[in-house]
Amino acid sequence: MQRKCSLAHLILAGAVAVVLTPLIVATDARARIAFESDRDWDVLRFEIYVMDNDGGNQQNLTNNPGDDKHPSWSPDGKRIAFSSDRNDVGGDRQIYVMDADGGNQRNLSNNAFDEFEPSWSPDGKRIVFTSTRDGNWEIYVMNADGGKPKNLSNNAFPDRHPSWSPDGKRIIFISIGNGDFDIFVMDADGGDRRNLTNSDRSDEDPVWSPDGKRIAFTSLRDGASRDIYVMDADGGNQRNLTNHPDVDFHPSWSPDGKSIAFVSNRTKDLNRDIYVMDADGSNPRNLTNHPEDDEAPAWLNAVLSVAPVGRTLTIWGRLKQADR
User: How confident is the model over 77-83, as a mean pLDDT?
Assistant: First the structure.
C-alpha cells in the first residue's frame, strides 16, 4: 500500500512538473528591465528602453523627441506606463501607456497638469501616480484606462514616488517628515497614513520587495551622496546596502527578491549607469555601461513573475509530506 501511494505521488509530481516547467522557463525569459536613457539625443531628452536582466539586448521603445521617463510594467508584462512631455515639450508631463514592444503609445491623463511617476496596482486595474492638479505634488490613483482619477494623499506638503504593495492593500510614497522627505505608507484608499523612516535626512525612491516584507529606498543619511538602503515593511531594521562614495539611487527588486537593480555614477566618467547587486548589497556589477545616462530601472515584474515558481515549490512540498 505504501509503495502504491508513493508511486501515485511520484506520477502526480511528474505531471505537475511537465505542466509547470514551461511557466517557469517563460518566467525567466520574461525577466526584463525597463529603464530611461538619454543616449539618443544631444540634450537631456530621455527615452524608455528595455533590456534583458543581464544587460543584453538593449532596445529603444519610445523613439520620440519628447522627454519619456519613469517606466512601470503592468503586472501581466504586456504594457509599460511612463511619463512624457511630448504634448508640451519642456513643460507638463502626462501619464502614457504603451505595449511592451513600444507599440500603441497613448496618453492616459491628458490634461494641463504635471503628472508622472506611475505605478501599477498588482491586479492591473489601476495606476497610482504623482500629480500637480491640486497645485501641489499629490498621490493620485486612476483606472488603468485613465478614468476616475482620485486624490489619495490630500496633504499640504508635497507627496511623490508612489509604489503599490504586492498585496494591493498599501501604497508607499515620500512626503515631508522631519524637514526633509521621509518614507510614508498609507492604505490603498488613502487612509492610515504613517511615517516609516523618521529621518533628519532625505529618504526617497521607495519600492516594495516582491514578498512585501521589505522596502528598498534611497537615502542621504550617511553622507553627502545617496546610498541604497533597505528596511522591514514596518520601518524597522533600516540598513545601508551600498555605502559608496558616489551616488546610488532608484532601486528596483528582481522578481525573485534576490537582487536589486539601481543607478550609480561610480564609473570613471561619472555618467549614470544601471547596476545590479545581490539583495544584501554584495556583488555590484554594471549592466548598461554606456557613456550617456541610464536611469530609473524597473524590473518585470515583482509580483506575477514569481508566482509559477512559488506554486511549484508549494505543490512539491505537499507531495513530499503526503509521501512520508
Answer: 97
Q: Identify which of 212, 216, 162 has the alpha carbon closest to the alpha carbon of residue 190.
A: 162
Beta-bridge partner residues of 184? 173, 195
Instruction: Grade residue 23 by pLDDT with cuts at 50, 70 and 90.
Output: very low
The runs of H, that is alpha helices, within 111-255 are: none
- Which of residues 145 and 31 earns the better pLDDT score? 145
β-pair partners for 140: 129, 151
**Domain 33-306 top-level CATH class:** mainly beta
Q: Which three cell numbers stand for residue 182?
A: 521621509
Return the amino acid letter for 83.
S
Whether this prediction's pTM lies above 0.70 is answered by yes
Could you state, in order of their start, the residue ranges of all structural domains in the chain? 1-30+307-324, 33-306
Among the listed residues 197, 193, 190, the one whose alpha carbon sits nearest the alpha carbon of residue 218: 197
Paired residues of 295 in beta bridges: 36
Q: What are phi and psi of 280, to 5 degrees?
A: -95, 5
